[in-house]
């Protein structure tokens, strides 16, 4: 496993992921759990944000405290399932900018085709956190990162909930500079490119579609 793949190992993440995987978990709970896990993962993903001293007055006395400095953030949701994680990340950093990347898989070539791309125009000045719950084949993730780099993004992190070994390998082969944060690495992809054991179709379960 590449050493820039981080499995966020926390009892609460493991517990909530188990609930998420269970087929009986209804849509509303699924959505809430994705948001909660994203909050917990965001805590790890943003651990190295730089801080700077700031002078404030508490009700009792002046003090020098710390605030996040410098690096501006941009969250990029890979549509549509990425929006579930995005909600949790934006709860953590309400001032972050947000971009969206839409890709579909060409039925013949199986290559990802872009149908939507909207990101801030100063990507070169931002830490970019790309979110998509399932890192399955890695093709969409790699295509999204390629496109973001073309738009100027430099420092990019990728966050998912469940990764397949195949997806990690593909993303790492295309973009070895991009660290991957995941709550779990599952066994394998099946012949339909679903992650096993996985949690099913993350978009359908988030939005209650089928
Ligand atoms: N996308 C999903 O939603 N689930 C998988 O298992 C693989 C890709």
From TrEMBL:
- What pathway or pathways are given for this protein in its record? Pyrimidine metabolism; UMP biosynthesis via salvage pathway; UMP from uracil: step 1/1
Annotated 5-phospho-alpha-D-ribose 1-diphosphate binding lies at 80, 105, 132-140, 201
Q: Could you tell me the keywords of this UniProt record?
A: Allosteric enzyme, Glycosyltransferase, GTP-binding, Magnesium, Nucleotide-binding, Transferase
Instruction: Provide the GO biological process annotations.
Output: UMP salvage; uracil salvage
As to how many cofactors bind and how, the note says: Binds 1 Mg(2+) ion per subunit. The magnesium is bound as Mg-PRPP.
Q: Which reactions does this protein catalyse?
A: UMP + diphosphate = 5-phospho-alpha-D-ribose 1-diphosphate + uracil
Indicate whether Transferase appears among the record's keywords. yes
Q: Can you quote a single GO CC term?
A: cytoplasm
Residues covered by the Phosphoribosyltransferase domain? 7-209
Question: InterPro entries under this entry?
Answer: PRTase-like (IPR029057), PRTase_dom (IPR000836), Upp_B (IPR034332), UPRT (IPR005765), UPRTase/APRTase (IPR050054)
Per the UniProt entry, the Enzyme Commission number(s) are 2.4.2.9
- Requisite cofactors: Mg(2+)
Q: Which GO terms describe its molecular function?
A: GTP binding; magnesium ion binding; uracil phosphoribosyltransferase activity
Activity regulation here? Answer: Allosterically activated by GTP.
- Chain sites annotated for binding uracil: 195, 200-202
Q: Which HAMAP family match?
A: Upp_B (MF_01218_B)
* PANTHER family linked: ADENINE PHOSPHORIBOSYLTRANSFERASE, URACIL PHOSPHORIBOSYLTRANSFERASE, CHLOROPLASTIC
> What is this protein's function per UniProt?
Catalyzes the conversion of uracil and 5-phospho-alpha-D-ribose 1-diphosphate (PRPP) to UMP and diphosphate.
The name of this protein is: Uracil phosphoribosyltransferase
Q: Which organism is it from?
A: Acidiphilium multivorum (strain DSM 11245 / JCM 8867 / NBRC 100883 / AIU 301)
Q: Which lineage is the organism of this entry classified under, starting from the top rank? A: Bacteria, Pseudomonadati, Pseudomonadota, Alphaproteobacteria, Acetobacterales
Which gene is transcribed and translated to give this protein? upp
């Amino acid at each position: 496993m590449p050493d820039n793949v981080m499995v966020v190992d926390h009892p609460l993440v493991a517990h909530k992921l188990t609930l998420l995987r269970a087929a009986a978990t209804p849509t509303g709970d699924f959505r809430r759990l994705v948001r909660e896990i994203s909050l917990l993962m965001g805590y790890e993903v943003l651990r190295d944000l730089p801080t700077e001293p700031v002078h404030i007055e508490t009700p009792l006395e002046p003090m020098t405290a710390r605030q996040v400095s410098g690096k501006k953030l941009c969250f990029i949701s890979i549509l549509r399932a990425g929006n579930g994680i995005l909600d949790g990340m934006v709860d953590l950093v309400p001032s972050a900018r947000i971009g969206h990347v839409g890709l579909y898989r060409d039925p013949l070539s199986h290559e990802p085709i872009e149908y939507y791309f909207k990101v801030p125009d100063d990507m070169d000045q931002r830490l970019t956190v790309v979110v998509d719950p399932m890192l399955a084949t890695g093709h969409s993730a790699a295509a999204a990162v390629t496109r973001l780099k073309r738009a100027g993004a430099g420092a990019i992190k990728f966050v998912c909930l469940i990764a397949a070994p195949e997806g990690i390998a593909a993303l790492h082969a295309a973009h070895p500079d991009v660290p991957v944060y995941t709550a779990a690495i599952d066994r394998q992809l099946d012949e339909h490119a679903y992650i096993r054991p996985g949690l099913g179709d993350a978009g359908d379960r988030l939005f209650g579609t089928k």
